[in-house]
Structures are given as structure tokens and as C-alpha cells.
Amino acid sequence: MKGTVFALGIALLIAVFALGAILAPVFAQSEDVTEQERINELQAIIVQLLQLIIELQQKLLAVRFVQPPVPAAPTISNCGQAEVAWDRVSGASGYVLYRNGFEVYSGKNLEFLDTGLAPGATYAYTVRAKNAGGLGSVSPVKTTTIPLQCPPASPFVWAQEGICGGNVQVTWSASPGALFYEVFRGSTRVGGGSVFSFVDRGLGAGKAYTYKVRAGNAGGWGSFSQEVSAKASAVCPPAAPAVPEVGSPFLEDIAQEGIITLAIQGSPSGATAQSGAGGVNILSFRASVIDSSIVIERLDVEFTDRPWLFLSAVEIRDGSQAVATVEVGESSFTAVEDDRYRLSFPGLAVQVGEGKTKTLSVRVVAKENLLLAEPRALTVSIPAGSVRGRDQIGVVHSVPATQEASVFSKTFFVKRGD
């Protein structure tokens, strides 16, 4: 602006000098021009120069007093959020929520996400319950100050089929300012954290699912991303079979009767099943076979002292694998003499190869919330002839023998969880 003022001042000076230059020839005109003509001509020139000077002065003043541009007022994004929740009121059919005395919500929910708030501002909330009789009294005031940080923008999300077994891989982009994320399958939250991917497992193989993600920080939750869809992965192929057994095509000609023997294991002994904990093995025995492979098809177990009062499940295990499980109740047992109760496991298919040995175990799970002041002792046993198997030529074997059955017994305990 200073440069403009200086230039206009120079122009004014040039105009003054131009006036002198114009007037000089006028006064130097010959005497043939009358005095009146020279005066008239001089007046016309002066008027023109004065008009020029006035215009230059006006431009000079305009430059001197021009105002600098005023910047626009900064805009404030009302991006704040407040989660408001209240207790249920007996007899109420709905609730009305007020922010600073103005109604912001009316309905049956017990919570409300108030949005569009100014960061850094403080708001006061009150709630009134209502029913057919009208509005109840106002709750105490609860104030909150909105964080200065805005919730993050929604991320970009994509989903694809995961590894086999009914899985979907969900991945999303990082949202600036986000500290954590939530993943929803439909309207159900299925995952969250600070990472940028999630594997949704246990889904129906080949079935389509929709997903959306939102980002959050101290300012609250941002809006949800667009929903994306993906199909869950297919069922996994089966594992490789064990080494196949190759026999003679004339097996029927050489098949013979097998022999099976049982031997009780020393461990476990005196095991304790605790309510609220997992299962525990209470009795184990070894089944050994010679001369022919034998398939164990049935196993009976006996308990003392009304076991359904203390146990929720009993299972038979082949090594570490459960081969049969019963969720027990009183009807699961058959009462036998001497206050004993028998539980049967028909339909087994535990194969013991020729010359091989397998370890079978009885495992129990204690009932939840047992009301026992002290641990309760029960007895489990394998009765005579209760382990039944069939060999290659169809002969059914029942063990243990009567004279051996007394050793297939263990005492175990059940107790209340700590």
C-alpha cells in the first residue's frame, strides 16, 4: 500500500509541473491575440488541471484509508458425544431425557447416545419417568464436559473367506486419531481392539455374513463403516487316516478267538471333582488283547450314594479322547443291590488290536454350586462282566471275571468350588 501512495504523490507533482509547462506558452503568445482571448484560454486550461488534481487526490485518499480484509470466523465442528444411561423405574412405561432443560429423547430405552455436541462444552442432563398418569419428578442433575477430541472417521472395511472351517477374515484401514475399533456381525458385536483385522470363527460353512466396523477414541465412537459381505469358509478336509491294516483276503479261514484281560491302573487314586471346575479322571484300567483284535462295545460303571446329586456328567475316555458322554440325572442310573447305581455306555466302538493294549478311563464333572460343607466321598467300580467286546469271529467276551472284579474300584471325592 505504501508503494501505491508514493506513486500517486509523484503523479500529483507531475501534474503541477505540467501546469507550468502549459501556461508558459500561453503567456508567450504574440501580441496579435487579444488580452481577453488569452484569459479565456488560460481559464480553460486551469479548470482541466484542477479537475486532474482532484481525481488524483481522491485516489490517494482511497489508498490511504483502505481496510484490510477481515478473515471469516472459524467454524467449530459439533462432533462431541455423550452416553447417558439411567436406572429402570418401577411402573414406568417410558422416559424423557433433557439436556440443559430441553428434551432430547423420549422412549423406552434406558440409555441414549447424545450427538452433535460442542467439544469442551459442559452439559447438564436430567431424566423423568412417565406412564399413563403423566411425567414423574425430575432426577438429580448430572453434568459432563465433552472431550476436545472428535470421534474418528469410519474406516474402510473389507471381508473375505478365511481358512477352512467356517471362518471369515475382516480387515479395515486405520482411522486417524483412533485408539480402538469394534467389529459387528450384523447388529452383534463380535470383536474389538487396537489391531486392524479380526477372524470370525465357528460360522456356517458357505453361509454369507455382513460386517461393519467403527473406530473410537476419547471423544467417543465414530460412525459405522459401510457394511461388507463375505461367505464363511468351507468345511475342512478330514485328517489323514492312521496307517491302514492290510490283511489276508482269506481272513475268515485264519480268524480265531481272541482273549481280553483287564488290569486296573494305580493312578488316579482319591481324585477330587470340584464344582465349577473341569472334569477329572477317577478310575483307569488297561485292556490287553491277544490272538485276535477285539472291539469293546459296552461298558457299565457303578457308583454309590446317589451320584446324580453330585455329578453333572460322566464320560468314558480312550486315552485322552472322549468316546462316550452322559449328561446324568436320576433316570440315567439303574439301582442295584447294596445301594449301588449302575450307568451303562452301550454302542461303544473301541478297537484293541491283536497284541495291543489300550487305557480306558472314567471321568466325571461335578455339579455347579454344590452345597457341601465338607468333601463327599463316593465309590466308583467296574462290575464283573461289565466290559464286553467282540473278536474277529464274533465271539463276545465279558470281563472282568467275578473273582477279579473286587479290585476294579476307587474312592473319589466331590466338593464345593473355592
Automatic annotation (TrEMBL):
Residues 68-149 form the Fibronectin type-III domain. SMART domains: FN3. SUPFAM superfamilies: Fibronectin type III (SSF49265). This is Fibronectin type-III domain-containing protein. The lineage of its organism: Bacteria, Candidatus Wildermuthiibacteriota.
